[in-house]
Amino acid sequence: MIRYEQVPDPEPGPGQVLVQVAATSMNPSETALRAGMLRTVLPLTLPYRLGWDVSGTVVAVGDGVTSWSDGDRVIGRLDAGGAAASLVAAPAGSLAAAPASIPLPHAAAIPVAGLAAWQAVDGRVRAGQRVLVNGAGGGVGGFAVQLAKRAGATVIATASPRSAEAVAALGADEVVDHTAGPLPGGMDVVINLAPVSAEAAGGLAALVRPGGTAVSIATPIPGHEHFVARNDPGQLARLVALVDAGELAVHIAGTVPLAEMAETHRLSGAGLLRGKTILVPS
């Protein structure tokens, strides 16, 4: 059960900064966390404060912090959670400067999804390749399509009909309705971002040409790499630079008050959210 309640304001400890939260964002993985599906990789103690993505403004710094000052605009992935609040004490080393070219609340859509997409694409996708992004309608997929296209690949993306237009606008060369029939084969790289059946995962493996590669952050693809995205503030800073250079768009599907987080989780668990929804403190 998600409760929305008043708690004492946190104080920054050594190596931490206190962030006035502009927004956090909804990640399907947080729904999986609540369902107990991540207990082997992310054990936690209840009560647990949700919110892995954060954007906001530094309002105080703890002992030993020299990298940030009051008034700095920051974003970050908080592996311990807690960003679903008005204030959060965050490790100073987990943060990057927020992009200046988009509204600060919108920047909360970047850390978790952007880092997962970066790590799926970087080092695997090269110019001239044919790349399939399976599950491109979500937050990670939107970034993955753009990053693969920026690398010079021909990008084929799967998305539902209601997401197809948005995915095409992000640069996909072809958008395929994953429910309408077989997917194209002969892929140099397959990036799976969707929880699918074991049978469907085997089908994705068959789409990879000999010598090609596949990677999944969701259901494992037989014979190929499965990974959990890691926190990397350096990579996050590079994503921010691309946003500010106009080379990476941050698409926000919706904005809701933080007080409505329980309903947002319900909609996510029912598969009724698309893209990135941000939650802003009331």
Describe the structure.
One of its GO terms (molecular function) is L-threonine 3-dehydrogenase activity. Pfam families: ADH_N, ADH_zinc_N_2. This is L-threonine 3-dehydrogenase. The protein is α/β, with parallel strands linked by helices and 282 residues long. It folds into 2 domains: 16-109 and 250-280, Medium-chain alcohol dehydrogenases, catalytic domain (Quinone Oxidoreductase, Chain A, domain 1, Alpha-Beta Complex); 114-226, Rossmann fold (3-Layer(aba) Sandwich), CATH 3.40.50.720. 24% of the residues lie in helices and 26% in strands. The chain has 7 helices and 13 strands. The chain has helices at 28-34, 111-121, 139-150, 161-169, 198-205, 233-244, 261-269; strands at residues 16-25, 53-61, 73-77, 87-91, 95-97, 130-134, 154-158, 174-176, 187-192, 208-216, 225-226, 252-257, 276-280. The strands form 2 sheets. Strands 1, 2, 3, 4, 5, 12 and 13 form a 7-stranded mixed sheet that branches. Strands 8-7-6-9-10-11 form a 6-stranded parallel sheet, with helices on one face. Strand 12, helix 7 and strand 13 (276-280) form a beta-alpha-beta unit. Helix 1 packs across helix 7 (261-269) and helix 2 crosses helix 3 (139-150).
In short:
This protein has seven helices and 13 strands. It is α/β, with parallel strands linked by helices and 282 residues long. Helix 1 crosses helix 7 and helix 2 packs across helix 3.
Helix count equals 7
- The strand count comes to 13
**CATH architecture type of the largest domain:** Alpha-Beta Complex
Unreliable residue runs: none
Tell me the Rg in angstroms. Answer: 19 Å
CATH superfamily of the largest domain: Medium-chain alcohol dehydrogenases, catalytic domain
Domain module count: 2
Helix-strand makeup class: alpha/beta
Average the pLDDT over all residues and give the rounded result: 92
Largest sheet: 7 strands, mixed
Helix content: 10-25%
The dominant shape is: globular
Order of helices and strands: EHEEEEHEHEHEEHEEHEHE
CATH topology of the largest domain: Quinone Oxidoreductase, Chain A, domain 1
How far apart the termini lie comes to 20 Å
Strand content: 25-35%
CATH class of the largest domain: Alpha Beta
